[in-house]
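Memo to structure team: turn this sequence into structure tokens by end of day. - J.P.
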Amino acid sequence: MGCGDNCRMNTPVQTSPYAPLQNDTFIRACLRQATDYTPIWMMRQAGRFLPEYRASRAKAGSFMGLATNTDYATEVTLQPVDRFPIDAAILFSDILTVPDAMGLGLSFALGEGPKFAHPVRDEAAVAKLAVPDMDKLRYVFDAVTSIRKALNGRVPLIGFSGSPWTLGCYMVEGAGSDDYRLVKTMMYSRPDLMHKILQINADSVAQYLNAQIEAGAQAVMIFDSWGGVLADGAFQEFSLAYTARVLAQVKKEHNGARIPRIVFTKGGGLWLEEMGQLDCDVLGLDWTVNLGKARAVVGQHKALQGNLDPYALFANPTQIEAEVTKVLTSFGTPHTGTGTGPTHIFNLGHGINQHTPPDSVAVLVQAVHEQSRKMRTPLV
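Reply from structure team:
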């Protein structure tokens, strides 16, 4: 005898709106599981080094025209995935969307980089700050969902945000900086104001990353681009502590899937041991760090990501292949077999330079895949 609607009520079926993941190498490496080869993706891979990106940007009219338009953001995120056999896509957006949603007035002048119309430099400006309404960032979450659908399971999608400290730097300086004078002046003379900014930033970033995860991001990354400009002691107090505050609030799972969390601090090699205590899955490293030494310090607890000097890509193909060998050899043979162990995700030590020849990237990706497969093949 059939049970009609009661059966359906008692046995709910979970269905995902997305295609199953065909290449999970990046996710497995993030979770310190064995992979057939070392996965590779590149910071700023959806960007200015690709002629197709420049064509899309010309159509959009501006950087924010790209970032705030779902179709364009989807298009440029997929461009490097279409061109190279890379193992992950990263959302095309900007780290400064969160302070923009706080009302600071973000703009990009051609050739000048980001600027805020209303920098945060005194008590009154700090008092106005609050965690923004995430609806103001709906264009980001719509893009995440659109990209995830367009990828159709080819590779995972990484969401991201700037770290609380890095966002704070831009908010106080009002733009990029050579000397960090304004933000460091506030940090030393009014640490109370700096801490207030960072608390709000941390809680905003956590909500922002969680909303990206809910929209479809399969991993998230925190870019602490300016952490390395801090003195020892100040880094722990003003950067690391607030990155930890973000991680304490960011989802580790969504819809039954683990969501790897990656932290990258440019210039953070001095503090590897302390960064190894962060509640994240992966530590990204710049090119100043020896991967073998980093593995000895944190590799039993975290996957490592990095760390080819982006300017190696201006060399000839033979030299690029040699530099890939150096990075892979520096890390050593990754974990193989069952369970978990030390794993490596190949990346650049910082964002790819806009003048990089695309053909060099093709050489890089092929070299990483081929050489890392050989490292896992036992000699007969």
